Amino acid sequence: ISVSYSLLEGISNLPQSGATYIPVRDRAYSLKPFADGFKYWMIGVADPDGTIASTRRYGSAKLERDYIPRILRTQKREMTDIFPAGATGDLNVTQLVPVIRNGKVVSIVFTATLLTEINALLTRSTTGHGYYALVDSKGDIVAHPDKINLFRNIVALNNTETMLLDETHESFQDDIKNHRGGTFFSWYRGAPIYTVYTRLENTNWIILHRVRILPTFMAAIIGFGVQVLIYGVVFTLMYLLGTLYMQRQLQPVDNILKQVVDLNRELLDSARIDAEEVSEIIRISHRGLKDELTGLPTRMLFRQILNARMRKMSTPQLSAIFFIDMDNLKVINDCFGHTYGDEALSFFGVRLQSIATKYAGLCSRYGGDEFLLFVENLDSIDAVHPIAEELLCELRGKIMKDEEEHCFHSSIGIAFYPLHSAHIDVVIQLADIALYETKQRGKDGYTVYFPEISAHAPAPKTSNAKRLKHLFSA
Question: What is the pTM of this model?
Answer without folding.
Answer: 0.44
